[in-house]
Design goal:
The protein is of the alpha+beta class. The protein is built from two helices and 15 strands. β14 and β15 form a beta hairpin. α1 crosses α2.
């Protein structure tokens, strides 16, 4: 093993150089002899270190790469996740329920008291202005009402000769609609001893208009009660505004037009024709009413 030579401090600089060269002193020779091998030691050490590092890198196993998954050989299609959109709710305003008026039945009474408010009030054979005149009632006359029609404002007056008046011209102690319905039905028109009613009648419709025709029945001039009397009376139950209205029409011709008959009533419209003369009525003949 080489021993390191300690350079003496008292040697002159030239001597130091000589010792380093190793040709004048035994110590210098030994120094040079020991240093010569060491100048190869550093490169060898570096090479060995590099090889060791390379060897470590070579032998360190590389991280295992994930094995590839086997291919899916199933022939069934891949499940597809389907998203269904939530239903869209549209806010709609709900109208408040409309109260349907309920008609409360009016209790029926046998009769009502009334007083005439017109100066002279005609009392007629039938419930309308076209029927024959029977007699007149004076203003403030007290009368007793015992019935009404099914669909207009005429009321039946009690007495020896029962007759009909318009309720607009009397003051009634109560509701006339509480009276029993007597026409058509209980109350009858006087029958003519001379003339029958028409043998036939027919009707056609044009929208809400209904044209009615019937068999003509001529009467003699002496059978007219007055110049205003009509030879034929047509009773019509027609629909208007969802209600059946009773209407009487008069004419001297074997035809007439009902101007307005609508749909929407609970019972069908209908009508009939009478022959009128001063002693009473012939007929009636029912009108085959056309459907709306």
């Amino acid at each position: 093993m080489c021993k390191l030579l300690t350079v003496l401090p008292d040697l002159p600089p030239s001597g130091r150089g000589e010792l380093l060269k190793g040709d004048a002193h035994q110590g210098g020779f030994d120094y040079n002899r020991c240093m010569k091998p060491q100048k190869y030691f550093l490169p060898i050490f570096l090479i060995l270190t590099t090889l060791a590092c390379s060897f470590n890198n070579a032998v360190e196993p590389a991280p295992a790469s994930p094995s590839p998954k086997p291919a899916n050989t199933s022939t069934s299609p891949a499940a597809t996740e389907t998203f269904t959109s939530a239903p869209t709710f549209t806010e709609t305003s709900t109208p408040a329920p409309t109260d349907t008026p309920t008609l409360t039945p009016i209790p029926t009474v046998e009769s009502l008291k009334a007083q005439v408010s017109a100066d002279k009030l005609s009392c007629r054979y039938g419930p309308g202005a076209e029927y024959l005149y029977l007699y007149a009632l004076n203003k403030t006359a007290n009368i007793k009402l015992i019935g009404r029609t099914d669909a207009n404002n005429w009321v039946w007056v009690d007495g020896t000769n029962k007759c009909w008046v318009n309720a607009k011209f009397i003051e009634v102690a109560g509701d006339p609609k509480s009276l029993p319905i007597v026409y058509p039905g209980i109350a009858k028109l006087p029958i003519s001893p001379y003339y029958p009613g028409p043998g036939w009648a027919k009707a056609t419709r044009d929208g809400n208009k209904v044209q009615v025709t019937w068999e003509a029945v001529p009467i003699s001039p002496g059978k007219y009660a007055d110049e205003f009397m009509h030879q034929y009376i047509i009773e019509v139950w027609r629909c208007e505004g969802g209600q059946i209205l009773f209407e009487t029409l008069g004419t001297n011709f074997p035809f007439i037009t009902v101007e307005n008959d609508e749909s929407g009533c609970s019972i069908p419209s209908h009508g009939r024709v009478f022959v009128q003369e001063k002693h009473g009525y012939g007929g009636p003949i029912e009108i085959p009413w056309p459907i709306q």
